[in-house]
Design brief:
This protein is mainly alpha-helical. The chain has a single domain, classed as DNA Binding (I), subunit A (Orthogonal Bundle). Helices cover 39% and strands 9% of the residues. The protein is built from four helices and two strands, in the order αββααα. It has a two-stranded antiparallel ribbon with strand order 1-2.
Length: 110
Amino acid sequence: MARVEHDLSATQWSALKAAWGGCAYCGAADRPLQRDCVLAISRGGRYTLDNIAPACRSCNTSKGSEEVTAWLRRRRLDEGSFLLRHLEISRALLAIDLDEVDAAPFPAGD
């Protein structure tokens, strides 16, 4: 697999975490959050503002590279609410153009 570019800046990641207020999937707000590619890298996804959702370790590990809607259904999580909120947050943050605020790439290890 070709090396994937990590286009998410530190400012974008902070904005995503703030906008979601916890895990994008289960809502847990009392644990550290990890970057999860909504469309997995193995399926063509990238670390970009509109493809990353903050996820708790449990959700991130459980989802793995599975297609997000199938995984949400299997876990009996609210697929419609996630998709709508993901779209709203992505559009709002993309409209702000956070890249102009912080062009530094997000460190791959966080």
